[in-house]
Amino acid sequence: MNIVCLDLEGVLVPEIWIAFAEESGIPELKRTTRDEPDYDKLMKWRIGILKEHGLGLKEIQETIAKIDPLPGAKEFMDKLRRTTQAIIVSDTFTQFAAPLMEKLGLPTIFCNELVVAENGEIVDFSMRCPQSKLTTVKSLQTMGFETIAAGDSHNDLGMILASKAGFLFRSTDAIKAEYPQLPAFETYDELYDAIVKAL
Q1: Does the annotation mark 124 as catalytic?
Q2: Reduced to 3 DSSP states, what percent helix, strand and coil does the chain have, rounded to the nearest 5?
Q3: What is the pLDDT of residues 6-44, one digit of tens each?
Q4: Which residue has the higher pLDDT, 33 or 54?
Q5: Which of 44, 118, 135, 168 is the most buried (most CB within 10 A)?
Q6: Distance CA 135, CA 75 (A)
Q7: pTM, 2 dp
């Protein structure tokens, strides 16, 4: 039995933090897991910048409301889910992901939670488990699934490398150069065809 595990941001939807950086005029928030492999460090840094600028969950959600899936992403997900089981495994947060899941046809997503104060300030974040993407893939494997994974960033590499087939999708030149053994694709048709061959 196969299950496909997909990253969310950069693969199916634009990077939320980049969109918010542009909307808020805070260029430092453009830093993502493509740039900083340590997610814990990255999130603590982001929360510090939000606090410094007096911004909270409401402002980020207002930006997210304007974000649409990447062109072709919903059609790709619909086609994939008719072919095999697929879930999104993301380091994002339920408070960010919910409206985007509506636009993608409500696929299953495993993600994390923000800790938000009554005044809307983001004070912390709660990860489902350590190395959540790799841990999710390993857990699915113990349940009898063979996993196929795709993502674009450093934090996707664990689940990609641990799967029976793994792909980079719209990744950076640096990551592609560092992992030449991983097939790298730029279009949903290419990714879909590679997944089907791996089933």
Answers
A1: no
A2: 45, 20, 30
A3: 999 999 999 999 999 999 999 999 998 888 888 899 999
A4: 54
A5: 168
A6: 28
A7: 0.93
Q: In the numeric block, which tokens belong to residue 21?
A: 């950086």
Q: Which of 9, 15, 152, 156 is catalytic?
A: 9
Sign of CA dihedral 41, 152, 19, 26: positive
Q: Which domains does the chain have, with CATH numbers?
A: 2-12+69-198 (3.40.50.1000), 17-64 (3.90.1470.10)
Q: What is the spatial distance between Cα 155 and Cα 152, in angstroms, rounded to a whole number?
A: 8
What pLDDT score does 15 carry? 94
Catalytic pick among 7, 15, 152, 156? 7
Could you tell me if 167 and 80 are in contact, meaning their C-beta atoms sit under 8 angstroms apart?
no
Q: Is 35 a catalytic residue?
A: no
